[in-house]
Amino acid sequence: MQQIEFCLNREYVQLNQLLKLTGLCGSGGAGKALVAGGGVSVDGSVELRKTCKIRVGQVVTLGDVEIKVADGGELPPV
User: Fold this and answer.
1) Of 11, 31, 41, 53, which sees the most CB atoms within 10 A?
2) pLDDT by residue (tens digit) across 9-27?
3) Ordered structural domains, the chain, with CATH
């Protein structure tokens, strides 16, 4: 199984956007289609909510790819 560590530097990322940001799909819309098809699991359970909030510590699985969401620290002030 391929493992990806995604560093999150905010409170959460939407599931469809996480799939896009990790390169598992080409767009947020494609990510929504993957989730709607029932092919994505969050912490071992199939997730059908396309914009489910994914937080630090959660594990997302798509096929043979596992994404571990790690703490990326705070964004610097602008």
Assistant:
1) 31
2) 999 999 999 999 999 999 9
3) 2-71 (3.10.290.10)
